[in-house]
Amino acid sequence: MDKRLENLHRALHPRAIAVVGARKLDDYMWLRNMSTFMGPVYSVNIDPNEIPGIEALGVTNYARLVDIPEPVDFVVCAVPRRAAPIVLRDAIAKGVAGMAMFTAGFAETAEEEGRQLQDTITSLAREADLALIGPNCMGVYHPKLGIRNNAEQPSGVAGNVGFLSQSGTHAINFSLYGSSQGLKISKAISYGNAVLLDSPDFLEYLLQDDETSVIGMYIEGPRDGRRLFEVIKRIPPHKPLLIWRGGQTAAGSRATASHTASLAQSSEIWDALFRQTGAIRVDGLEEMVDTIKALQGLKPSTGQRFGLVTMTGGPSVVITDTFARAGLEIPTLTEASYETFRGFFSIIGGSYKNPIDMGMNWAGESLHEIMRILMEDPHIDAVVNDLPLTFLFRRMAMRPDFKERLVATPTEMRQRYNKPVLAVVGFSPFEKEEVDMRRELSEIGIPAFHNFERAARAFRNASAYHRFRASLTAENSRSIA
């Protein structure tokens, strides 16, 4: 690990943090963000009008970084851009390991002053091997240590999902939405203009980070595309890597230049990269979170043949179309399975050809038997349950044990059989109950998705990654032979 990555590690595991430039105008945002940090937090501010508000938060204020008597490993810089080089020089003199520069107004403005200031801070940080994150970024979220870049983020919880983003908003949204969907984050880094540490550096760090087992990233454009691609090639054999790329269109490319001063790479280059490396392409925040849920919650599978279980006829048709459009198969079952169905399945209002339209077959142990048949059928690689609260809500309200028994069936199937089981909980007016049920299912190892499309995409992406890993294993076996 080179010196800057060593300093990045120190910055991500600091003994103390200093916030430079906290202001009443934004309610001392950065000091409030860091209020959950497990170590000391200091303020640096020379404005006498700001100091009373800072001290009212219980934070000690100093005029300069070098005045702080204790070691400081990580600094958040939130000063006007002309003051940024001054703060950076003090950080270097203080022996700070890393700085997240929230300050914006550099090359992304296309102004000469902004470009010159960016060149200055880049040179200063490079010469000192200081791990500069940004500028024009939200910096670091490390929940285990309570380091946050948004006051709503959970803290004190260790996780295994790493996330990198050139966009501060996407980094925060991922942390908040991902947490609501059961993901636990190891480290999330918003790196903005990436004047010194860029996406290859952060990916290199997360590849070596024992606390991170899956990596997601939002990227607009690297400074060194060749180096980024070389690092990307090394990651998927060890950890899933999901990439959401901004600037895929001509208009989007123009937007990236004014957002982070990035130059987008051509779609043809990225398409080749995805084909060759096993990195997973996603096209939005929801697909990113859903795919990570599938990778973490589903048993690994390279199979594409689905057994579909729904409650009514219309959804059984739509889910079949949806999964087929995603490139997944919905095969007929074996004759032995159909023979078993004939022994108990009431045809009134239902069908068991695959998809399974449950109709009136929710009573007694029918769901358990249907799931058992599908899990044991050699034509089926995975099973999805459609659980619409439109029909289930009343039953759950009338029978307190109904929900528990309903959840027990897919749970047992997941434990007994080596096939993925997933659920769809949506299409109803009972939004709070849907959120609760998806969370409860995910907590017991059944990834639950908002709709058919999201479930199909998540499984397809996860399955493609497992096929990539299987191909590497087969290739290695041939090489040994």
Unreliable segments of 5+ consecutive residues: none
> What radius of gyration results from the CA coordinates?
26 Å
Number of helices: 18
Q: Average pLDDT across residues? A: 92
Could you give a short account of the major beta sheet? Answer: 6 strands, parallel
Structural class: alpha/beta
Helical fraction equals 40-55%
What is the percentage of strand-forming residues? Answer: 5-15%
Task: Compute the number of strand runs.
Answer: 17
- Bulk shape: elongated
Output the strand order for the largest sheet: 3-2-1-4-5-6
**Oligomeric assembly:** single chain
Separation of the first and last Cα atoms? 35 Å
Explain how this protein is built:
The protein is an alpha/beta fold. Helix content is 45%, strand content 14%. The protein is built from 18 helices and 17 strands. It has helices at residues 3-12, 29-33, 51-56, 84-94, 112-128, 168-180, 199-208, 225-234, 250-260, 267-277, 285-297, 313-325, 335-342, 366-376, 389-398, 402-416, 431-443, 452-480, and strands at 17-20, 41-44, 60-62, 74-77, 98-101, 131-133, 139-141, 161-165, 185-190, 214-219, 241-245, 280-282, 306-310, 356-357, 382-386, 421-424, 448-449. β10, α8 and β11 form a beta-alpha-beta unit. α7 (199-208) runs parallel beside α8, α11 (285-297) crosses α18 and α12 packs across α18 (452-480). The model has no long low-confidence stretch (mean pLDDT 92).
